[in-house]
Amino acid sequence: MSILHTLTVDFGLALRNVLRQRRRSAIAIAAIGFGVMAMMLTAGYIEWIFWANRELATGQQFGHIQVTKRGYQQSGQADPFAFIMPDNSPAFAIVQHTPGVKSVAPRLMFNGLISHGDSTLSFLGMGIDPVQDPLSHNLIILKGKTLSPADPKGILLGGGLAANLGVTVGDTVVLLTNIPGGGINAVETKVTGLASTSIKAMDDVMVRVPIAMARTLLRVQGSQIWVVTLNHTELTDSVLAQLKQQPSLKQLEITPWTQLADFYNKTVALFSRQMGIVKLIIGVIIVLSISNTMTMSVMERTVEIGTSMALGVQRRRILQLFLTEGLLLGVIGGVLGISLGYIAAIAISAVGIPIPAGPGFSHDFVAQIIITPQIVLEALLLAVVTTLLASIYPAWRASRLVIVDALRHNR
Fold first, then answer.
1. What does the radius of gyration of the chain's CA atoms come to, in whole angstroms?
2. Contacts of 207 by beta carbon, 8 Å cutoff, 6+ apart
């Protein structure tokens, strides 16, 4: 008898035994299915958290890649004017024409004081390209409008800063800052919009101005950062490798967003560990459920097992038969759980999960559940692996029964 034929026969017998014990099999499959569904929904919610933080980091903060002078990421806050790069350099054009790059936008960082009437507060400013910079399109506009090339003297204020300063859209404010060489310069401008980055601490100090205004205010040419936006976030590693291979960029520092987004990295580390604990708990529940089911099956079929071995069925095949039954329960329960989990994820995402603003955030969120192929694969593996593990001891116990004792069972 060929191995394939043996496996086919064992599969048929295992399927018959699963269907024969309908109530017990249904309970076991339900336990596996609901465990898999719970795992998928939890993993999908965490995947949305990762996605939201990734979009926040790349769209509203760092872009996908930043090109700077060497040392800026470590020392740029202390002496930002020492790291100015000219935008008309050949290196800027090389970055622009790299495959996968959507846009390259210069940024000019500065700080100073903002005044309105008798109120004066400190701010953190950023001069950006109103067209190319992702900040122009991804900030949450609370009131008014975003920066526009048609309004070169308009600025955006963070919602918290505007509230503390007592200004709104249309009001005139004065920006005062230090310039290279130790002097002071000021510019009078109009607030065109109030915006939010979702991070309260940033909203309380944020000022965004057209980069031309920032250069006039600071009396400099160029910028400290070139923000590279890609067609897809997944292209980050490949584009980073291409840029680092360019001889003209060897003197510059090329930093991916994954090295800049400290909050994102810590969030991924935290929730990944928590997800590991959830998988462990669900796995233990499935193992206990299936182990109990298989043990009861062995006890009820002791005479049947003894008869099979008396007729010449090898112990190894008895072991294989019960493992196949466990595998079938895992596959059926896993497929059922994946189907229910996917349907539930679509329904929950359509309604949305309201999340109140957490510590450090400025507004509420509406979360969704994102199911990826990796989550589906992990859910199926969880169901199959745990049921196989749970079946090992009952299957081994069935294969080690003494034939005479098995035939006398319940007599």
1. 32
2. 114, 123, 124, 125, 126, 155, 156, 157, 158, 161, 175
Work out whether strand 119-128 and strand 101-116 pair parallel, antiparallel, or are unpaired. antiparallel
Asked whether the beta carbons of 58 and 134 are under 8 A apart, the reply is yes
Residue 310 near residue 404, CB atoms below 8 Å: no
Average pLDDT over residues 180-192: 88
Cα 240 → chain centroid: 20
Residues 298 and 195 grouped into a single domain: no
∠ CA(91), CA(97), CA(98), 5° rounding? 90
The Cα–Cα gap between 398 and 299 comes to 9
SS3 for 178? strand
Q: Which residues pair with 228 in a beta bridge?
A: 65, 104
C-beta of residue 191 within 8 angstroms of C-beta of residue 155 = yes
Tell me how far apart the alpha carbons of residues 409 and 310 are, in angstroms, rounded to a whole number: 14
Predicted pLDDT of residue 7: 65
Query: What are 93's two structure tokens?
Result: 């054009």
Write out the two tokens for 141. 């506009």
Domain boundary among 194, 222, 250: 250
Same-domain check for residues 51 and 79: no
Which of 190-213 are b and which e, b meaning 16 or more Cβ less than 10 Å from the residue's Cβ? ebbbbbbbbbbebbbbbbbbbbeb
Between CA 95 and CA 239 the distance in angstroms is: 10
Assess if residue 271 is contained within a domain: yes
Q: Residue 406 — very low, low, confident or very high, per pLDDT cuts 50/70/90?
A: low
Look up the domain containing 310 and give its range: 3-57+264-407
3-state DSSP call for residue 410?
coil
CA distances from 202 to 43, 125, 199, 205, 222 (A): 29, 11, 5, 6, 25
Residues 11 and 136 in one domain: no
Q: Assign 155 a pLDDT band (cuts: 50, 70, 90).
A: very high
- Please tell me the distance from the alpha carbon of residue 339 to that of residue 333, in angstroms, as a whole number: 10
